[in-house]
């Protein structure tokens, strides 16, 4: 790389790394905010889900039938069963979600009624009433247990055969849990990475070019004895490096916060086992993607009058990139159509989805890298031509 290009890269990196506020907001803060927000969300969800787990629920059972007495007296360690009648006042008290009661009323002579009931009679079946407050977590949990017991009891009254009898040895669901998680994350992670990379690029690219125009320092650069292509390469590469660091920070924040938001171990949350080659492929694709993003945003920034105008012009591009990142959500598998990999950014999304689903194709990877680098090279050429245009660089 030529010395003038290296000088531009050093200048841009020094501008970011020399400004503590810009360094924090552009690189460190995205990952930190993601970690804090996702962790708080995970803790909040866990608190909601686990609240009331240890609360003791009083189960009042009226007209308890002999057939269900042993079961209802030993439902669960968190349910205290009382064979006792209750009235409308007891039912109304359940409107207070702090009342840890569940009420179960059987018809009188329940066992006799169900033994002699015939659907052909046209009479309604005996009705069992189960009152609870679904806003009380412990009561809702108890309701689910009791509803399951009653449903199972009802089915057993006419039980002619079993469906998928549960045993320790027999497994009926052939899906692998890790495969399911892998498929889910292979659709979600590319979208997250694209959003994070674009966010990092958008944070530094406008100020690198439109900011120079706004401050008036672009004129000094343009009169220096260097080729416009060297200036364009230096700008795009430096923006890419900073954007890559910002995206990496955000990605680390997501990975560290996943166990908290999933409330489980990181390995189980991801359901993914990456090899060194997977990481290498991912890094190459990410860098090629950042090159494209930096190139496109640099072109728009060169057209803009100032950083505010540049940010406005870049916003529609953000939605286009986000849409590309969302495409795997609507696919059942990674695309094998080679034409797909001729579209910048979208090709990166497909390759990343393949990496996360352990189906990396080296042909599509090479195509993606070549296409993205080629588009970045064309963008460098266009940007150098724009640097030569006084009408564009000094527009007000």
Percent helix: 55-70%
- C-alpha-based Rg, rounded: 32 Å
User: What low-confidence regions span 5 or more consecutive residues with pLDDT below 50?
Assistant: 264-271
Going across the major beta sheet, what is the strand order? 2-1-3-4
Beta strand count: 4
What distance lies between the first and last C-alpha atoms, to the nearest angstrom? 34 Å
Helix vs. strand class: mainly alpha
Largest sheet report = 4 strands, mixed
Oligomer description: single chain
Number of domains: 2
Helices and strands, in order, run as HHEHEHEHEHHHHHHHHHH
Describe this protein with a few key phrases:
single chain; elongated; about 5% strand; about 65% helix; 4-stranded mixed β-sheet; about 400 residues; mainly alpha; 15 helices; D-Maltodextrin-Binding Protein, domain 2
Give an account of the 3D structure.
Helix content is 65%, strand content 5%. With 396 residues, the protein is mainly alpha-helical. The protein has 2 domains: 3-45 and 177-393, no CATH class; 57-156, D-Maltodextrin-Binding Protein, domain 2. It has a 4-stranded mixed β-sheet, covered by helices on one side. Helix 7 packs antiparallel against helix 9 and helix 7 runs antiparallel to helix 13 (346-356).
Structure at a glance:
With 396 residues, the chain is mainly alpha-helical. Helix content is 65%, strand content 5%. The chain has a 4-stranded mixed sheet with strand order 2-1-3-4, covered by helices on one side.
């Amino acid at each position: 790389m030529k010395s003038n290009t290296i000088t531009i890269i050093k200048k841009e990196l020094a501008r970011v790394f020399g400004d503590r506020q810009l360094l924090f907001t552009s690189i460190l803060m995205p990952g930190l905010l993601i970690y804090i927000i996702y962790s708080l969300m995970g803790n909040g969800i866990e608190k909601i889900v686990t609240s009331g787990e240890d609360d003791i629920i009083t189960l009042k059972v009226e007209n308890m039938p002999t057939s269900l007495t042993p079961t209802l007296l030993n439902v669960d360690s968190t349910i205290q069963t009382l064979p006792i009648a209750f009235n409308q006042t007891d039912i109304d008290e359940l409107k207070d979600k702090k009342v840890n009661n569940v009420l179960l009323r059987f018809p009188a002579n329940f066992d006799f009624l169900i033994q002699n009931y015939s659907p052909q009679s046209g009479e309604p079946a005996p009705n069992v009433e189960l009152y609870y407050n679904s806003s009380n977590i412990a009561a809702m949990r108890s309701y689910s247990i009791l509803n399951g017991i009653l449903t199972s009891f009802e089915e057993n009254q006419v039980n002619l055969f079993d469906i998928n009898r549960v045993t320790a040895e027999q497994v009926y669901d052939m899906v692998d849990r890790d495969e399911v998680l892998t498929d889910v994350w292979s659709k979600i992670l590319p979208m997250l990475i694209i959003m994070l990379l674009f966010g990092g690029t958008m944070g530094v690219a406008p100020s690198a070019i439109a900011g120079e125009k706004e401050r008036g320092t672009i004129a000094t650069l343009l009169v220096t004895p260097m080729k416009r292509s060297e200036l364009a390469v230096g700008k795009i590469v430096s923006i890419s490096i900073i954007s890559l660091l910002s995206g990496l920070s955000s990605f680390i924040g997501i990975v560290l916060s996943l166990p908290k938001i999933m409330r489980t171990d990181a390995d189980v949350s991801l359901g993914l086992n990456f090899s060194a080659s997977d990481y290498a492929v991912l890094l190459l694709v990410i860098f090629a993607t950042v090159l494209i993003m930096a190139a496109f945003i640099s072109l728009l920034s060169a057209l803009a009058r100032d950083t505010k105008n540049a940010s406005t012009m870049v916003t529609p591009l953000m939605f286009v990139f986000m849409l590309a990142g969302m495409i795997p959500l609507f696919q059942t598998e990674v695309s094998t159509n080679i034409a797909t990999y001729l579209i910048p950014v979208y090709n990166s999304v497909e390759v990343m989805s393949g990496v996360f689903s352990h189906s990396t194709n080296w042909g599509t990877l090479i195509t993606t890298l070549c296409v993205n680098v080629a588009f970045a090279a064309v963008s460098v050429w266009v940007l150098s031509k724009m640097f030569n245009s006084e009408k564009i660089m000094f527009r007000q």
